[in-house]
Sequence to fold (156 residues):
Amino acid sequence: MTIEEYQNTAQRLRSRLTEQARHYLMDDDEADDAVQDALLRLWQMHERLKLPIDGLAVVITRNICIDLLRRRHRIANIELADSLDNDSDHERIERLMSVVDTLPDFQQTLLRLRHMEGMEMEDLAKLLQMTEPAVRKALSRARMAVRDRYLKTERR
Fold:
């Protein structure tokens, strides 16, 4: 794709992509940023692209919006945990963390990296030198172990 073709296509698609991003994000500024990021990604691969790129642009924009929403959700969860001022909630969190502390080191590390540090699966797989499905399975097993151990302590 030539530079001129890219510019024409980007100009033509911008309003459609912005509308799509606003639908997901409900924020004009964030939607504009998401579209700009999508167009930048398309620009970085413009030499390998062939017209039409409408579908690819829509998918890239959607994925960027979903990533932004996931990050927003993670921040909301952290803020919720920080704002807990009910003693029973604090006690439950402490019991949950003590259950995590009883897990094998690998499972502890995996849970902390994913849920406390917010690492993505791809990054975890690279760090641990595992495949993404193997990381997902190990994380699932760690979560099940926490659930089972937590429920046992709750019954007592």
Observations:
- The mean pLDDT is 84.
- The two ends are 66 Å apart (CA to CA).
- The chain has seven helices and no strands.
- Residues 3 and 102 are 57 Å apart (CA to CA).
